[in-house]
Amino acid sequence: MPGLYIHIPFCRQACTYCDFHFSTSSHYRPQLVSAIAKELAFRASEWQDEPMKTVYFGGGTPSQLLPSELDEIFNAVHRNFKISSSAEITFEANPEDLKVEYIKHLKAIGINRLSIGIQSFREPDLNQMNRAHDAAQAISCVEQAASEGISSISIDLIYGIPELSNEAWLEQLNIAARLPINHLSCYALTVEQGTPLAKMINQGKRKNTDDEQAENHFQLLQKWAPTEGFSHYEVSNLAREGGRAKHNSAYWSGESYLGIGPSAHSFQNNIRRFNIPNNQKYIRSLRDGDAEHEIENLHVHERYNEIVLTGMRTSTGIDKNEILKTGKAFMDFFLDILENHPDRKQITQTDTHIQLSSNAWFRADGIASDFFFLPESSK
Fold first, then answer.
1. Pick the CATH number of 3-251 from 1.10.10.10, 3.20.20.70, 1.10.10.1100, 3.10.290.10
2. Is the pTM of this model over 0.70?
3. Degrees to nearest 5, angle at CA 26 with 21 and 30
């Protein structure tokens, strides 16, 4: 069964590190909500009444939606799609938006999983990232969501912040462990071109990130996780028993998904679709039919590269059968590189999978790229 992703491109304010598609203006919000409802109706036929096993509201900040706006989208989802009775329905939210009545509404309409963008429990970090909440709100919103019956809660934390010591990072993790969560996503602070953070670093107003410091934080995370009942199942994701994210796990295993909203991506039958990352153009295009978008037909080598990249990042590893679907030549290509690869001792094989040791996970993307097949024209 496929998954459904809905992109809500609004934020209260711009975080210094973020390069996702969003707007801090709510001027066109009612029109965009209506456009999302139209796209849901327009594209329903592509999926031939297949039940959706996951629904994911991402962004941006979905919790910027008013309850009435969320209802409009949710009603459109149910009018046009079958949702599995056991579906994981995730809603991304920021702490400052999770007031008691809002949480009650989320639960009433069927949200059964919250992904809360906390990023840090330290006031200096939150200020430097231009987050709108404080540490007290970060803690209280998780406790309140759990008390209102949201049983599956994930939080995000960022490491590799230049001012964040090893001791302070461990304290961040220990605060998280005391909260009623069953999932934790941890990301290294990355400097993306065009962001306020990149500009401040270039101007000498902020320290640049340090790979060695970030790797130290990652290794501390790996040692800490099992002591608090977390399984580190993907480079950036950890879960307590029963808490693995079904929606994101489907991405990593190459399952189909439908993306709705400006900048949203879809994947089906080795075809990727990219909606235009512009709110007003998205709204205008839905007045006449489908959302403005681009289509990419994945070449077989591109599919192979994706299988290698996502598999290297997971505890399950690369599924050999998935590589073989692209052709035996790609399996031979992978094994030929492995024979002389400097990290070959970090890579093990079973009858069904190829796994990268968690000791090398911090470098997973770089190691995976060594195994990419690049046609002569792109080398």
1. 3.20.20.70
2. yes
3. 100
Q: Which residues make beta-bridge pairs with 91?
A: 57, 114
Give the domain ranges of the chain.
Answer: 3-251, 300-378
What does pLDDT average to over the chain?
A: 94
Count the neighbouring beta carbons within 10 Å of the beta carbon of residue 241: 9
Kindly state the tokens that stand for 105. Answer: 């509404």
- 196 and 11 in contact (C-beta within 8 Å)? no
pLDDT tens digits, one per residue of 53-112: 999 999 989 999 999 999 999 999 999 999 999 999 999 999 999 999 999 999 999 999
Structure tokens at 205: 């107003």
364 contacts 356 by C-beta, under 8 angstroms: yes
Alpha helices in the chain (DSSP H): 29-43, 67-80, 100-108, 123-128, 135-147, 166-177, 196-202, 211-224, 246-252, 279-288, 300-312, 320-326, 328-339, 364-369
Pick the CATH number of 300-378 from 2.40.128, 1.25.40, 1.10.10, 2.60.40: 1.10.10
| Length of the chain as a residue count | 379
Q: How many CA atoms lie within 13 A of 317 on its CB side?
A: 17
Report yes or no: 360 and 343 within 8 Å, Cβ to Cβ.
yes
Sign of the Cα torsion 41, 42, 47, 52 reads negative
- The amino acid occupying position 250 is A
What is the DSSP track for 78-99? HHH--EEEEEEEEEEE-GGG--
